[in-house]
Structures are given as structure tokens and as C-alpha cells.
Structure prediction request, 362 residues.
Amino acid sequence: MTETIAKRRVLSGMRPTGRLHLGNYMGALYNWVRLQDEYDCFFFIADWHALTTDYAKPGDVWQKSHDVALDFLAAGLDPQRTVIFKQSDVPQHAELHLAFSMFTPLGWLERVPTYKDQQEQLREKDLATYGFLGYPLLQSADILLYKPAFVPVGQDQVAHIELTREVARRFNQLYSSAVTPEVAAAKSDKELMKAEISENVIESAIFPEPQALLTPSPKLPGLDGRKMSKSYGNTIGLTESPDEIRKKLKTMVTDPARVRRTDPGNPDVCPVGDLHKVFSSEETLAKVYDGCRSAGIGCIECKGWASDSIIRELAPIAERRHALEANPRLVDEILQDGSERAAKVAKSSMQEAKVALGLARR
Ligand code: SF4
Prediction:
């Protein structure tokens, strides 16, 4: 008799920024597609999170979410194997966030590095709001609701996973039936909150602590050489036409040492070189290094090769997106089905949490 081994669960989300770009693809989606083979995957569109920074002018979050869902599917997420859903369609995310907000010290949120960084970067917005301070806690609820073993993240998100682990630990210590000696010995709320957080796994943990799954995310510069991001207006879209990709690549900055065609350059300091490293074959890469260092090729020719490599990688994605666009109801149905599958898990976790919190009958 063959034994079925349950796959370990992986969960991650993405903000609804509209049609995705190459940076989103290589930074997350490319890896997610591959994780489907090995894990029980849950991937969601974090539409509530859009409001944490864009509450004053949210725009059409629904349309942007729909566009992200189309790109998820076009890139190869498979709704047969993976639960794909929208965060706001599963109300337990907001409910668990509220529960967590009752015991999370402000200091935990204030020390999340992105809190100050983002306030600096987005100075034109007033982010002195409760929602913005609490968004990493909403992320903790997003994650813990599904009790995943792993959360695939880039290095910049590791602090958020650490907060999630602390929140899980605190919840388990306060409300699980088996409390740690530190918590049992506490005589006041203050002592309780100061109680050393035990690193030991609590056997009856309601929320197991997830691990960060550090996924490779290659350096992917935008057209101006800075990190590819919609806010810099320097992106190459995941499903842009070949003509548009070629046109954009022609404007991309190069190694500043190559002022004249006869000046040798270095692909290691050139943003076009970075694109070649991600998308081009070994053979093309060798031609780029030789030709650039010896000034044997011009940048226009080199950018043409980079365009060819990108277009080749993206062609099947663009094709799938066109097919999906011809059937607009299909995406709605996939999201509906995904939210129902997600809600089954979310409801069960929320019920457990409510019992532990004394809000529901044991
Ligand atoms: S030849 Fe290519 S790698 Fe070298 S500087 Fe020009 S664009 Fe960059």
C-alpha cells in the first residue's frame, strides 16, 4: 500500500499594483510557479494592503487585483494545484488581525525596519496612520491563518516573518492550553508581556511558527538602472509587446564608461548586462562579455540581444494572458473557487483562535 505524504504548505501574497513587471516576476512569481511542484501552495492578492499606503487615493483596486490575478495565471500558477485568492474575499484576515492587535506591543511594530524606511520614501503621503503601522501585523494574520510551514520571501521581508513568528509565539503562550512556566508565573499584565518568549515549540501551539523560505531573487534593474519599480516609472511589463520591449530597451542606461563606440565596457557594471545574466543563454552571455570588453560590439546590438532573450522568455506568458483575456469570467471563477478553498482553512483557524480567546464555546 502506498502512503500519501501530505505536502508542506507554502503561502505568500502580492499587493495589487496592476499589470506586473519583470521585477515582480523574477522577484517572486517565477519562484512561486516552481514551488507548486513540491508544496501545497496558497498565493493571494493582498488588496487590503493597497489601502495601507494609498488610502487617500485607492484608485481601482478591484481592476488592479484582477490584472494581477491574470498575470499570476499567465505566468503559470495553476488553480488546480494552487489556491489563488483575494485577501478581502476571506474576512478572517481582518478578524485575526483585530485579535492580534489586542496583545501586540506598539514597540514590535515601530521597530519593523520598513516602517521608518517607507515613511521616508513615501514622504508625500501621510503615513502616520494606524493602518500603516499595523500592516506587518495584518501580514502576520494573513500568514498564520493558513498555518504554513514556509513563507517564500526576499531578504528585505525577513523582519516581517520574524514579527509573525513572535506574534504566533505570543498568542500560543497567552492562549494555548499548555502555557510556558514564564507565563504561568506572571502576576500582572506587564509581567506577562515582559515574560521571556520561549524559543521552544509549544506542543499545543495553535499557530505554528512559519519559516522564511529565502528564494533567489536576481538583481533586476529598471530602465534607469535603479531597482525596477512602478513608482520609478522604469519598468518592463510582463506581457508587453515585443515592439514595446525593444523600444524600451533602447532607452536603457549602460556602463557610463562606454561614451564612444570604441570605448571598452564592463557588463558587470551595466544594467543591460544584469538583464543578460538573468535572461540570456551562456552562449549569448559569452558574446556580450567578449564584445563589450573589447569594444567589438555596440550597445545597440547588445540591447537587441537582451530584447531577444526577454521576448523569448515572456512569449508563452503573453500568449496565455491573451487567451485568458478572451474569457474574462474565468478569472472571476478561479478567484471565487480559490476564496472558497481558502475560507475553509481560514474559518477553521479563526474558530480555534476564538475558542482560545474565550470568544467561542469550547
Ligand atoms: S555592450 Fe552591452 S553590456 Fe556593454 S555597456 Fe553596452 S549595453 Fe552594457
